[in-house]
Amino acid sequence: MTTGADGDDDPYLWLEDVDGAEAAQWVRDRNAETLATLTGAERFASLRAEIRQVLDADHRIPYPGWRGDRFYYNFWRDAAHPRGLWRRTTLDRYRRQVPEWDLLLDVDALAAEEGESWVWGGVTVLRPGYQRCLISLSRGGADATVVREFDLERREFVPGGFTLPEAKSDAGWIDLDHVYVATDFGPGSLTTSGYPRVVKRWRRGTPLAEAEVVYEARAEDVAVYASHDPTPGFVRDFVGRSLDFYRTENFLLTEAGERVRIPVPEDASWDVHREWLVIRLRSPWQVGAVTHPAGALLATRFDAFLAGERELTTLFCPDERTALSYHVWTRNHLIIATLVDVRSRLTVLTPGETGWRREPLAGVPADEHSRLVETDPDLGDDYLLASEGFLRPATLRLGRVGGPVEVLKREPASFDAADLAVRQCFARSADGTRVPYFVVGREPTSPGPALLTGYGGYEIPLTPDYDGAVGRGWLARGGTYVVANIRGGGEYGPRWHHAAMRENRTRAYEDFAAVASDLVAQGITTPAQLGIEGGSNGGLLMGVMLTRYPALFGAVVAQVPVLDMRRYHRLLAGASWMAEYGDPDREEDWAYLREYSPYHQVRGGAYPPVLLVTSTRDDRVHPGHARKMAARLHEHGHDVSYYENVEGGHGGGADNEQHAFIWALVLEFLWRKLTPSGQAIPRQASADASERAQVFRR
């Protein structure tokens, strides 16, 4: 059976019934087929064990978070605690080779006690005071969470405290006895994207139903928010709504309950720190006689700006090779992170009487990718900095702007990289655009198996990182790993993103195809040996590659993918993505969406084998995308494997065991399809503790 051109007579619509009996049986049958095919060999067991060892390793850096009370907080998973421990310690104890931790919450013990498959969803700590927090827990890793108030001194949930049932909620502290809460309040309280439409101020000890409405968005908006800034001398409250994925309308909420519009461009992002307002532009903004370009970062004094003054200081202006990645505040300084041809740079900006002084951030290695892990704008000018590379495990440093920098932790190697190298290359896309990509592996003497990944959406850049699972499961076994920095991402700022939005989406796909062709032209691999993998929007990328460029690849893996561009906006959070892709209900948008929608472009002929991986508990990208695509591919006689994890949410796995299983499944599939005999090059012995130190000192 085939579908109509627009998918309106979709014969696989029944697979969108997430927990329906017929759909659930279909999932069980497909899982059984895939597991029987891929998991029986010794190599799968070895892959799974090695990846699990990497994910659970005791020598991983326990990355900390700062909450304003001078403790180092950490959430940790390992073999003994698969769902994780939330804990904290002091700086002196964190400096030790094996820190001594103060346990706050054992999620495994809580799950066992309550008979729930709890997955950690994050925490919001009360400022100031720091004695209470709001903990979010999801069932099986979904975006929807249960929120509970927790006492940090007693290490227990607060009886009768602030508690929200399962929903896609947003809750934040005002003071000890009040919170802002946006959640599912019942019929009419959600947007068409499935997020809260109404935000309320909730007072302790009163029913949630009696909470005071603070602000309401429209049903067609994406979501609503409210937040409280408790900074002494600069106490402020904000409310606003997301008009779409990129545009917001924002207000200062006065003590009298009046809303004062913050007149920044709707598609700009902004934040307020003490007296300063910082604005990051996504599109050009004309102010008086000056037009500030997209990608610029501007600063002004917040109160003066609200009063009508427009004295804006340009803190960053992009060029053809350089883009702003993000910015963060310390107490007295602003740190901006930029990418220069996808290589990180960090700069400190300091406001003064004569303007903003700038200098490089201390402690940043020149040849690694560095990112700011944490600052504490309330307390001072300290920062935590992590630096790593594709072949270099992370180093965590503690620095202070204008002061010393010390190494806190070094992560040992997860695989032997002695004969591996990294190089950056550039491919030419169909329209002549220069597209960067990184190649990680041995210097090729002949073409071999390669794994290419990409994303290309939502202005999200792919930057170098140390992935022990890929290292052990792919690189150490002889494969080459490639990361493509295609348009749609944020590698070169808004212009790189805008170039592949909506009707221009196919440019991202042309970029990825150009990288694949360049790998073959360089002799790194062949089409039969080239596998590709991507997730979410990257899963859409994989679907397009499968249906539009099948001759370029030997195997395709799409994880938690978006594939049905006719109905994506009607499934779960899909309506919130229309600013990125377009509205399928508009004839002019569907005219271009249908041309690449993977589900609608499946045809007969020669396709590479494909593995589709998703999660029943993914409440962001509906598992129906992958289910229906698998059924459609099978209908046309293609080689398709399918695996649906019951848990995991949009992250695919709820714990390290599930993540290890899925990645072993992916890599086993790729090795089987990309090597003539289905056998990878024999793996190297992993570096032992003494070797690791030598391997990574170069």
Describe the structure.
The protein is an alpha+beta fold and 698 residues long. 21% of the residues lie in helices and 33% in strands. The protein is built from 15 helices and 38 strands. The strands form nine sheets. Strands 31-32-34-33-35-36-37-38 form an eight-stranded mixed β-sheet, with helices on both faces. Strands 4, 5, 6, 7 and 8 form a five-stranded antiparallel β-sheet that branches. Helix 2 packs across helix 14. Residues 1-7 and 682-698 have low confidence and may be disordered. This is Prolyl oligopeptidase family protein. Residues 475-674 form the Peptidase S9 prolyl oligopeptidase catalytic domain. Keywords: Hydrolase, Protease, Serine protease. InterPro entries: AB_hydrolase_fold, Pept_S9A_N, Peptidase_S9_cat, Peptidase_S9A, Prolyl_oligopep/macrocyclase.
Which features characterize this protein?
698 residues, alpha+beta, 38 strands, disordered N terminus, protease
End-to-end separation in angstroms reads 59 Å
Helix content: 10-25%
Number of strands: 38
User: For the report, how would you describe the main beta sheet?
Assistant: 8 strands, mixed
Give the structural class: alpha+beta
Unreliable parts: 1-7, 682-698
Number of helices: 15
Strand content: 25-35%
Overall spatial form = globular
Q: Average the pLDDT over all residues and give the rounded result.
A: 94
Radius of gyration (CA) equals 25 Å
* Main β-sheet, spatial strand arrangement: 31-32-34-33-35-36-37-38
